[in-house]
Design brief:
heterodimer; A: about 150 residues; three-stranded mixed β-sheet; two-stranded parallel sheet; 5 strands; about 45% helix; about 10% strand; B: about 290 residues; alpha+beta; six-stranded mixed β-sheet; 6 helices
Chain lengths: ~150, ~290
């Protein structure tokens, strides 16, 4: 953590990777944070939501939500009104859906497949790409082609 | 899909104003070698063999360490975090009162800031934005936090407006890093502007050395925490930048009581996420310094 005391503003910079969770990255879908909170912390967050956001506490608030809400609560304080906080970095993972609501492969996967095809094209025309990379990307293309074609 | 971003906040008194224009998210643009570290005991080299081919320096180094860097960093492919997905979330982020710093530039309290995350600084994202914007005729707009007084509510209300990047460059640059030092060529500071870099890998205080590289002497900065002010010199015979490394600083440990294993105020909160026995997190506090006038 790092502080510069400078009129009129004070800056606080924790280092990178400051928030990354016990598994190396938080998960957007993970709501374990709720169960890990003490009763006192839960009451504090609830009170904050009402006071600053004017909203009722969202029981589905996950790990990232709690990190951000906690930081928001911290800075909403008269004594920090001349401070700027750079709270290191937060690392989060998200599982992307592979199918849309109609059972089809999602656009995102299709786009990924197209990008992979482009990689295939680029790599096969590059002198610097190794044969193994070309083979790998090609196999990836074929694999994705198999999964995409029946549904497109 | 992974997201890597820095949450940035300006403190405020809720009785006087609201949070609009005071919450920012800075997405990390480039992938670092130390993103996605894997303990060697869990690292399976065969999963990357097909992509990377021959044994890499990374794999050779594995025999002497306990932590494997991201092996795909050495693959000749794109090394960016996905920026498109941030664009998809932009409206939602805005709805939550956050402003996204897409170009690592912002204006707050009429002070021009750049904020870079580690290797983004090495990749010169802030100065490249400035240069590219100039070349393209200055189409880029960056967020500026503004406040207006609401006579009805009898308090200030914050908002964000978008303005051009100021010609004078940044008065303050901030870098949150882990193993990255200040790069002189990446500085985009106004005259007497200051850069602050916090290195999470080192608790040493930053310094600078006059080193020869390819028969050419220049200043090189050494980590960890760094606090540097830059000024420019322009004469008929000399065009150069001068650097002043701040030396008035002090470090404080954050444990309330070192011998108290039940120190719940700090140790309890970070236990499980960080080691609570090997390294004590420290706060580095610098002496007050005037912000560059423009």
């Amino acid at each position: 953590m790092n502080l510069l005391t400078s009129h009129p503003s004070t800056h606080s910079i924790p280092s990178r990777f400051f928030f990354r969770g016990q598994d190396g990255a938080y998960s957007f879908s993970d709501t374990r944070a709720k169960s890990k909170m003490s009763q006192r912390e839960r009451e504090h967050v609830k009170k904050y939501w009402k006071k600053v956001d004017g909203e009722d506490y969202d029981p589905d608030c996950g790990e990232v939500c709690h990190v951000l809400k906690g930081l928001e609560a911290l800075v909403a304080n008269k004594k920090y009104k001349d401070w700027l906080f750079l709270f290191g970095t937060v690392i989060v993972s998200e599982s992307l859906p592979q199918e849309d609501q109609f059972g089809k492969t999602s656009d995102r996967l299709t786009i990924m497949w197209l990008e992979t095809t482009m990689h295939c094209f680029v790599s096969s025309h590059s002198r610097h790409r190794s044969q193994t990379i070309r083979l790998f990307v090609f196999r990836l293309c074929v694999l994705q082609l198999r999964s995409c074609l029946p549904r497109i | 899909m992974f997201y890597n971003f820095a949450p940035v906040y300006r403190g405020y008194d809720p009785e006087e104003t609201d949070y609009y224009g005071k919450r920012f998210l800075v997405p990390k643009r480039y992938l670092s070698q130390i993103d996605f570290l894997t303990p060697v005991r869990l690292f399976n080299a065969s999963t990357i063999k097909e992509v990377l081919g021959e044994e890499t320096e990374q794999q050779k180094a594995l025999q002497q360490t306990t932590m494997a860097h991201n092996p795909f960093f050495e693959a000749p492919t794109r090394k960016f975090y996905d920026q498109d997905v941030w664009m998809e979330y932009k409206d939602e982020i805005t709805g939550l009162g956050y402003t996204m710093l897409e170009y690592d530039w912002m204006i707050l309290d009429d002070i021009t800031f750049t904020i870079e995350i580690c290797v983004d600084h090495f990749a010169q994202t802030a100065i490249n934005t400035y240069m590219a914007d100039n070349v393209l005729g200055k189409p880029t707009k960056i967020p500026k936090s503004v406040e207006t007084y609401d006579h009805h509510a009898k308090k200030y209300t914050g908002s964000v407006e978008y303005v051009r990047i100021p010609d004078h460059m940044a008065q303050l640059s901030l870098v949150s890093s882990a193993g990255m030092t200040i790069e002189p060529k990446a500085l985009v500071l106004a005259e007497q502007g200051t850069i602050l870099l916090q290195d999470g890998e080192s608790d040493r205080y930053g310094s600078m050395e006059w080193i020869s590289e390819c028969d050419w002497f220049s200043w090189h900065f050494k980590g960890g925490s760094q606090h540097v002010t830059r000024s420019a010199k322009l004469t008929n015979t000399d065009i150069s930048f001068m650097y002043h490394v701040g030396k008035d600083w002090e470090q404080f440990g954050i444990w309330d009581e070192l011998e108290d294993l039940a120190d719940v105020t700090w140790k309890g909160h970070i236990n499980g996420t960080f080691t609570t026995t090997r390294y004590e997190p420290k706060i580095t506090m610098y002496a007050p310094k005037e912000i560059a006038k423009v």
